Fold this sequence. Notes:
There is one protein chain. The protein is about 50% helix and about 5% strand. By secondary structure, it is mainly α. A 4-stranded mixed beta sheet has the order 1-5-4-6, with no helix packed on it.
Amino acid sequence: xxxxxxxxxxxxxxxxxxxxxxxxxxxxxxxxxxxxxxxxxxxxxxxxxxxxxxxxxxxxxxxxxxxxxxxxxxxxxxxxxxxxxxxxxxxxxxxxxxxxxxxxxxxxxxxxxxxxxxxxxxxxxxxxxxxxxxxxxxxxxxxxxxxxxxxxxxxxxxxxxxxxxxxxxxxxxxxxxxxxxxxxxxxxxxxxxxxxxxxxxxxxxxxxxxxxxxxxxxxxxxxxxxxxxxxxxxxxxxxxxxxxxxxxxxxxxxxxxxxxxxxxxxxxxxxxxxxxxxxxxxxxxxxxxxxxxxxxxxxxxxxxxxxxxxxxxxxxxxxxxxxxxxxxxxxxxxxxxxxxxxxxx
Length: 345
């Protein structure tokens, strides 16, 4: 990416995040480093995807923010809703893509003259990068807009009873509104990729006669595949969150307690809703700035609605992004009949 464009673009994104208080101070630093690595790639598409994800994600976070703030509680005792994103949240969404972009930049640097366009059936790292942003965009859209659904979410991982209704904000809970929003988020990334990714338009070129160019139909099929992969990433995030992340509910209000910065929410006591999922009871604990008082009856003021207390929301997001990116690259190797070893060659 040309420095004349990259430098002001990075500063513009960081200034917007700073002025809107979208990121914490350390979040701004990590975002700046992440954006720089994206901008070092000779193609502008990956930096653009980062910008589209950040701007669109921020926009949907602000949609009816006052309403969403009343639907959940914050672990610190403040109103619910998303606050400034931390450096950990930045990495959870972009670390996988950043690593793949750095690898692809290094790969192109070893092959002078081959950075003009992306030939069909080559460089599956590109597939993994686009899949990452399609998935995290779908997850962000699904989470931020699905909570506003008129119908209550249903727990994907619930077995007894199946798909039981849960409080809004429960990890693993899905609604039709959220699923459609996730599809829209993935389509936004896929559409941006369709327009700006430098597809090779003719056969051969510097990759040789065996490297075919992309037809219009193949480009549309790729965009469609990335949309589906991104939407599946949102569903996978719900499954992982429903199993590996504890959803903590305030007993008095019945609202989900959200961890600050996507972190874990510790719960006083080990109450859990009955007959659910065959999952283990939550761990006991207490933390600074967290409400761990008990109600008048002496029972815990919080209970675990679902999930094992293994990962935080950030951990779930990172695992989902890595799984989708790797899965998309392996899928591309299978479709294009490439050895898996070509991912890094």
